[in-house]
């Protein structure tokens, strides 16, 4: 039996040349001091493999049609065996991939590994980063719920404001003039065919380049990269002190990659995939929800840009970031690699982290976004258990007012806080506002019956500052 297996392997290997292909890659020499800093690239690959496996599994049950997508996902989440876990793996796998790409980029940048002769390693890496972001953006729509659909509508609206090519961009994103089945089919094709194919191709090139140029050694201050002599020096050092990648270097990749896998699995099991909210409803026009966390900062940036310059900023920022990233290794491919001799590189990484972090926090708190799942108002705040004020409070939530307005800290922050609106506006002004709407407030004239309007108005009129002295806020002491 053993002889048969070994014999068959020899036969196959001779005809296919497997070990001739893999062997040298496993045995290629890596710097002896390439330690834990070097694990992020392989961890990104691990996360990508998780995405391929779970993505294919999801595709077995998912239907990319606008009438079925939401239901098939409900089925996957609630009924299919391991379906919830699978969706979780795909979500946290995506998160891990974004984080690992970021860490890998920061590390290669800090270590100056993008310098000669590894310029194209960096360039292909930048393209892989862009592909990863497109995957995140297109994947979110496949959830085909309210949040997903509106994130894309917001993106298309924003793209539409780009000067000159805005209309074209918006139509390209939506696959037409409004979001619908065509948008979903388009995003599905990009998400499961085009981008994965590009990512496979570029990971292949990226890895080939890693083998071709070898892994950059941890930088040492004073050891400069001089293109004329670098290769010979690197060869020589590898022959003196290099170690074969397998097993000396590979075990760290293996340990860290397994760790990433375990964390993804634990989060998927205990936290689970993002909740599906309501199916998309094209008639709810006044929403702009937030995207998944790894795109939240970009969303915050777009929301915070002043509207007058928005179109230009929107098109120029990614173009400039892309050009800077692609040009960095070409303009600056020699000299010191050590971060201690390139303090600005540390500053760039820190600044990027701070900038993305604060945008992220702004996005997470995004006061400009409605709250899609407001808590009902407690009885103590409503102050009535029957009658028009009570019914009005119920309608205030059911008609979506609470999604945008705060009452004593309950609700959303898209519109003004209405906690004390009864002190501020007269009955007629309240009615006018509800019927006619305003900037970012829909007009409710057609969707409320007269008695409903009266009840909501009664509720809002009852929103007054308490008059009993013990309820009043403490006076400032002079
Ligand atoms: C999509 C978010 C949104 C929804 C839904 C919404 N509002 Fe508003 N509302 C706003 C915004 C934004 C303003 C400020 C409009 C302006 O100043 O032109 C506003 C203003 C108001 C005002 C005037 C407040 C003031 O201080 O001047 C009242 C009253 C009001 N809304 C009541 C309601 C009621 C009642 C409903 C439900 C029937 C409702 N809103 C639903 C966003 C919303």
Order of helices and strands: HHEHHHHHHHHEHHHHHHHEEHHH
CATH superfamily of the largest domain: Cytochrome Bc1 Complex, Chain C
Characterize the biggest β-sheet. Answer: 2 strands, antiparallel
Rg, Cα atoms, Å: 28 Å
The number of distinct structural domains comes to 2
What structural class should be given to the helix and strand makeup?
mainly alpha
Unique bound compounds: heme C
The tally of beta strands, per DSSP, is: 4
Report what the structure shows.
With 478 residues, the chain is an all-alpha fold. It folds into 2 domains: 28-365, Cytochrome Bc1 Complex, Chain C, CATH 1.20.810; 379-471, Cytochrome Bc1 Complex, Chain D, domain 2. It is 65% helix and 2% strand. The protein contains 20 helices and 4 strands. The chain has helices spanning 2-16, 18-27, 40-61, 69-78, 83-110, 119-142, 146-160, 166-174, 181-213, 227-241, 245-270, 293-304, 307-331, 343-365, 379-382, 387-398, 401-404, 421-424, 427-436, 450-461; strands at 29-30, 243-244, 406-407, 410-411. Strands 1-2 form a two-stranded antiparallel sheet. Helix 4 packs across helix 5 and helix 5 (83-110) runs antiparallel to helix 6. Heme C is lined by residues 286, 370, 399-401, 403-405, 414-416, 421, 424-425, 430, 433-434, 438-442, 444, 456, 460. Heme C binds at residues 286, 370, 399-401, 403-405, 414-416, 421, 424-425, 430, 433-434, 438-442, 444, 456, 460.
């Amino acid at each position: 039996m053993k002889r048969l297996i070994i014999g068959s392997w020899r036969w196959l290997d001779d005809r296919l040349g497997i070990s001739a292909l893999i062997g040298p890659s496993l045995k290629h020499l890596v710097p002896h001091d390439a330690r834990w800093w070097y694990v992020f690239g392989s961890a990104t690959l691990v996360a990508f493999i998780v995405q391929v496996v779970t993505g294919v599994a999801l595709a077995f049950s998912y239907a990319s049609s606008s009438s079925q997508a939401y239901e098939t996902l409900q089925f996957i989440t609630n009924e299919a065996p391991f379906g919830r876990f699978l969706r979780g793996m795909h979500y946290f796998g995506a998160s891990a991939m974004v984080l690992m790409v970021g860490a890998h980029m920061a590390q290669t940048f800090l270590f100056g590994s993008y310098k000669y002769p590894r310029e194209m390693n960096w360039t292909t890496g930048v393209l892989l980063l862009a592909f990863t972001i497109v995957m995140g953006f297109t994947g979110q729509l496949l959830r085909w719920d309210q949040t997903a659909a509106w994130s894309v509508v917001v993106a298309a609206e924003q793209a539409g404001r780009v000067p000159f090519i805005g209309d074209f961009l918006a139509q390209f994103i939506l696959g037409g003039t409004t979001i619908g089945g065509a948008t979903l089919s388009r995003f599905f094709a990009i998400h499961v065919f085009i981008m994965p194919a590009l990512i496979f191709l570029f990971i292949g090139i990226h890895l080939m380049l890693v083998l071709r140029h070898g892994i950059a050694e941890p930088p040492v201050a004073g050891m400069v990269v001089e293109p004329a002599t670098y290769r010979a020096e690197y060869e020589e050092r590898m022959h003196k002190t290099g170690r074969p990648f397998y097993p000396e270097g590979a075990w760290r990749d293996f340990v860290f990659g397994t760790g990433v896998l375990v964390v993804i699995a634990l989060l998927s099991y205990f936290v689970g995939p993002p909740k599906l909210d309501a199916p998309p409803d094209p008639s709810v026009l006044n929403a702009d929800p937030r995207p998944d966390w790894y795109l939240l900062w970009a969303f915050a940036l777009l929301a915070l840009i002043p509207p007058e310059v928005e179109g230009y900023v929107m098109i120029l920022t990614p173009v400039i970031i892309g050009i800077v990233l692609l040009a960095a290794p070409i303009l600056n491919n020699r000299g010191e690699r050590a971060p201690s001799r390139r303090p600005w590189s540390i500053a760039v990484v820190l600044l990027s982290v701070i900038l993305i972090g604060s945008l992220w926090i702004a996005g997470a708190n995004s006061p400009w976004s409605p709250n899609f799942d407001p808590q009902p108002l407690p009885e103590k705040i409503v102050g009535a258990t029957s009658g028009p004020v009570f019914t009005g409070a119920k309608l205030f939530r059911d008609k979506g007012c609470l999604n945008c307005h705060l009452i004593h800290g309950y609700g959303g922050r898209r519109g003004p806080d209405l906690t004390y609106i009864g002190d501020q506006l007269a009955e007629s002004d309240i009615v006018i506002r509800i019927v006619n709407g305003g900037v970012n407030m829909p007009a409710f004239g057609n969707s409320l019956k007269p008695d409903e309007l009266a009840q909501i108005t009664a509720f809002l009129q009852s929103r007054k500052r308490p008059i009993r002295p013990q309820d009043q806020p403490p006076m400032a002491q002079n």
